[in-house]
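Input/output pair, single chain:
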Amino acid sequence: MSSYSVFVESHIAESLSQMKPKERKQILRLLINLRTDPFLEGDYVESDNIGRLMQVVIVGQSAVVFWADHAVKEVKVIDLRFAGR
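Output:
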């Protein structure tokens, strides 16, 4: 399987810069893994406002929200938020 491109919303980059190094490294590893495993299933699934299924992966105290656009071989990471554990 060829690699997908991973696109990250700009506010996520800002959030990453303020995280503890361990959690930041884990999230960056997830983003890299999405290039070769765009079918990754999250810890749970949410729907957006048009009914698209979003995968949500819990990393430490954060929830990473993404969806894969297989037609164009892209993964779109749209949110990074407190997981509320």
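Helices lie at 10-17, 21-36. The mean pLDDT is 94.
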